[in-house]
Amino acid sequence: MSNAHEIGEVATAILQTSFSMLNAQDAALFSYNALNDEMLLLSGRRYNPARKLELEETLIRGKLAYQIIKEGGLTVMADLREYPPYEYVDTRDYITLIGVPIKRNRRISEVLCLGFTAMQHLEESELGALDLLSIQAAGHLENAMLSEQIRSSSNRTRAILDSTRDGVILLDRRGLLIDYNPSAERLLGISLEERTNRRFAETLISQAQAGELGEGGYSQTEVADLARILQEEPERITRRQFARFVHEQFTYIEEIGSPVTDSDHQIIGRLLVLRDITEEKQLESYRDEVTHMIVHDLRGPLGSIISALTLAKESVQDPDTMYMVGTTLDVSLTSAYKLLLLVDSMLDVAKLEQRKMPLKFAPASVEAIAQDAFISMRISAQTANINVRFDIPGDVPAVLVDSEKIQRVLTNLIDNAIKYTPSGGTILLRARQPENRNKVLVQVMDSGPGVPHDERERIFDKFISQVKGKGPIRGAKGNGLGLTFCKLTIEAHGENIWVDNDSDLGGACFSFTLPIVPDAPPEDTFSLSSAELLNTSSVQD
Asked: Between the chain's N and C termini, which has fewer beta carbons within 10 Å?
């Protein structure tokens, strides 16, 4: 029995063992379904002495096995003719019946029935052997059942993985490729069949060098970052998008990486999910084109409306109507300016995305930029009863930035913090120079509810004005461009912005880096477009 793994194989092995132990002429193994209170034949064997053949059939019926369930223990019916319930049994087939209940988890789960054509009287040793057989059979059947459940579950999982359009790649903590599905091969354009149990990062590098990944995909920096996250930040959820240029067209792919945990919540690997977002990108491109066209068409008429309203307000002379007309014009002007601000924000985001935003770089103090940003938001913070603190030591070096753009970044982050921080809460602006780095780390943290892990990448996307299920505590919902502007502006400086895992205040913590002034600072302010900066940022670093 030890070599049998399938339920059918185990059942057959149990019958053959019982044949050899007691020389029975008929044997059957039944499974008891307690839910339906019925017996199911797992396997049956019958030995024909005249023909000396073992047949895959049994004359023992489930009704007899069911009576063994009622008896509850090992039952020996030496002469079935003496048992009224079994009068229907044809004693020409067998006259003695032995029923052996097999218990798993203290309940009878199977019944082994043995039939003999001649009357049998079992010795104590034979009864003990049957008890031992039932115990061993229970263990082997349990293992076979578990194996079948695992195989069934594995087959279902494999069928789901193989049929899904999303690519799935499973890595262990060492970065070895454990499993994948056909969609992952299709989206990456490489074969992974012979690369299981090999380092996935090395596979990507070798494929990129061989040109099998096409243009785009994983750069060596991104491969190194994947390996670093596996070792240093295995709990981190990552999200990025990249494009592959294959067969004269682009395929856009979104990759989401997340930790895989075991039943004890210990991280045992990493799951990469690849999704084809080409259609979404095409729709997004079309939307951007339409938006850009509408914005440009709106700006001209808006300027005319504002000029006309301003002129009308200055022309009101009648004292009786001045207050009412003046108030109405003020409301109209305020609304027009808000709409103009939205239009300008959309234009700025478009310029930053196209790397056409001019940036005026000059040495600047981080503290001065932060103070200017706070001044514009001071009234809002006071009205909300929020304490804004600064932690910017005097030894923080000057940075080489476009001060006006970075001030807008900080203003957006402070405004966001005010919206989500409860009354009496705190906002902290901190700046530090990380050790051995030519950058300044700037952080804006608050004591609000924070940003969920699965939202920390998505929150910088366009038109995402709030995290799922969490609206602002005060103020209207934004236009969803503020954090997008922050991200694009910081990236235009050749730096990064992200939501930190830890915050001293327990809420959200937005962090970004800024380049410090080189040892030999330029004599005058100079300008670069964001495209020019990105092309030279590696030299500056």
From this structure: C
